[in-house]
Amino acid sequence: MAAMRTIWKGAVSFGLVTIPVRLYSATEEKDVAFHQVRRSDGSRIRYKRVAEVDGEEVPYAEIAKGYELPTGEVVVLTDEDFADLPLATQKTVEVLQFVPLEQVDPIYFSKSYFLEPEQAGVKPYVLLRSALEQAERVAIVKVALRQRETLACLRARGGVLVLETMLWPDEIRSPDFAFLGEDVPVRPQEVAMAESLIAALAGDFDPGEYTDGYREALRQLIDAKVAGREVVVPAAVEGETGGVVDLMAALRASVEQAKRARAAAEAAGTDRSDGSVDTPDGGNVGDRESA
């Protein structure tokens, strides 16, 4: 936790119980970072903040937020104006309700944060975490982060409390697509074949099985550029035409492909970095050798 930066300090208000906590970002994007540069020589492109009315550069300390009215006039709001707003959740995670997690549509989730208790709040923190686990529920809360009040979900995960900020209901768009009003005929045989494909690809979710192939290819491209090697572009997947296909034929072929892939995986055993393979009783050879 020492390498993580505290982004908020406050307390979880749980009935008459107050739990002092620190908030940390729970996720980080591992994208490859780029700068904008001039194509001819790689020189960095820099931006200046200038006032539209006279073109003069504006120091960051003089920049405020402006809300434009329908008349074109601008209401200027400073940091002091935001500080004076009466936000009860400015320093408090206010618990509103406890609900089953499956009732919360994932479309509402925005960003994840870890909550770490201050020393004085360790016992009530563990109490709330244990109660949530036993009840199999999450807490719907309100909290103000970065001068904006947001709805959030507080849940137990891996021994800690995780705060999932959420969008407000009026921030969720409605899908207004033409096909939703159409009567699209789907034959029972097609549904049955699609269900067979789902069954063939069914399994338990293990996030460790998935990697970012695009990011890896991008790093290889950069390495090749540095080394002056020829950049090899992967060939397109055979059979990808993007045109109209026979749906049933495509489903059958997909089911057969999935079955072959699963059979090959079962025959080879689960890949592990320690070289162990699955055994019929659910253990693995690597575990027994180290026991």
**Main sheet: which strands, in order across?**
1-2-6-9-8-7-5
The overall pLDDT, averaged over residues, is 83
User: Span between N and C termini?
Assistant: 31 Å
Unreliable stretches covering 5 or more consecutive residues = 237-244, 272-291
Shape verdict? extended
Q: What oligomeric state do the depicted chains represent?
A: single chain
Would you count the extended β strands for me?
A: 9
Radius of gyration over C-alpha positions, nearest whole angstrom: 27 Å
CATH architecture of the domain at 8-26 and 85-171: Beta Barrel
Count helical runs.
Answer: 6
The helix content, as a percent range, equals: 25-40%
CATH fold topology of the domain at 8-26 and 85-171 = Ku70, Chain: A, Domain 2
